[in-house]
Amino acid sequence: MRLWLAAVPLLGLTAQESPQFYNERGSRAFKEGRIEDSIRDFDMAIKLEPRYAPEHWQRGISLYYVARFDDCRKQFEIHKTVNPEDVENAVWHYLCVARLKNPGEARKGLIPIQSDTRIPMMEVYAMFRGESTPEKVLETARRGNPAERELHVRLFYSHLYIGLYLEAQGDKSGALKHIGLAAEKYPVGHYMWDVARVHVERAKGK
Question: What class, spelled out in words, does domain 1-115 have in CATH?
Answer without folding.
Answer: mainly alpha
